Amino acid sequence: MATRIDGKALAAKVKARAAAQAKDLPRRPGLAVILVGDDPASRVYVTGKEKDCAECGFLSFEHQLPAATTQRELLELISRLNRDTAVDGILVQLPLPGHLDEEQVLGAIDPEKDVDCFHPLNVGRLVIGNPAFLPCTPAGVMEMLREYGIEVAGKHCVVLGRSNIVGKPMGMLLLQQSGTVTTCHSKTPDLPAITRQADILVSAVGRVGLVTGDMVKEGAVVIDVAMNRNARGRLCGDVDMASVEPRASYITPVPGGVGPMTRAMLMENLLRAARRHQGM
Ligand code: NAP
After folding, report:
1. Which domains occur in the chain, in start order?
2. C-alpha–C-alpha distance, residues 14 and 280, integer Å
3. Is the whole model's pTM more than 0.85, yes or no?
4. Which of 1, 9, 165, 218 has the most CB atoms around its CB within 10 Å?
5. How far apart are CA 132 and CA 91, in angstroms?
6. Ligand 1 pocket: which of 5, 183, 205, 227 to mutate (most atoms <8 Å of CB)?
7. Which residue positions in the chain have pLDDT lower than 70?
8. Which candidate in 15, 52, 88, 93 is catalytic?
């Protein structure tokens, strides 16, 4: 039976570490959070991030804008926040309403304040192995592997999903730790034949029950990034716990796995940004 990786406990440890390190700074780290519209799920995420800031002793500045906000208004706000010396990190909660150009918005954030690591410059830095920030979800997964003494070098790492937010940067971080990475997506034929080769399997698709026990090698490490709702409306990942847990060596639960780590790594990035801005 697999050991469950406790993302909640590890996230608390990461946040406590960030809070302790921030005590040396002359000024408290500040996060500006922009929320456009009133999507309830986005509201929950924003509230969670503000709570994390408070827990770490960091400041958060919320900018709740109406759904009808224009591209120009949003870009003006970002430009103002780029110049605001109390703001170390700027986060635009996604998804944005359809009439807004997400790529242009994310590209307008000062790369030095891009704590989500979505700006093309920071993505490029990540790819060449000289990152200013690490993307929160993949960085959270790497922190879990490190904490549980799971070696990546020389392992076959299979990543399901190739999004810019999770799948691609996940593969990049595993590669940088000398894993041999295979990235799968919706056009990958015979997924089980590939997943069965994985020493470390990361699923970031968003489909309930995608990964079943017969797709997992005995002793594999299984990381479930997904956040889905099952037929009963309960939060779950891509991995069928009942059939996979007995075969895996380590596994992350949903909830209580990668989710809390994503939030904790945002606090790490905010601390990193504040240090840079304060010349530390
Ligand atoms: P996304 O942009 O929708 O990407 C999903 C990826 O899965 C795509 O690359 C897609 O392939 C691939 N895919 C779809 N069906 C597949 C299949 N049958 N086999 C293999 N790959 C398949 O989603 P995302 O933003 O990366 O998020 C993925 C999941 O992670 C979601 O459940 C999301 O809620 C969750 N998430 C969790 C956290 C966290 O903190 N825990 C953070 C972010 C996201 P194509 O590219 O070919 O379409």
Report:
1. 26-111 (3.40.50.10860), 136-259 (3.40.50.720)
2. 20
3. yes
4. 165
5. 16
6. 205
7. none
8. 93
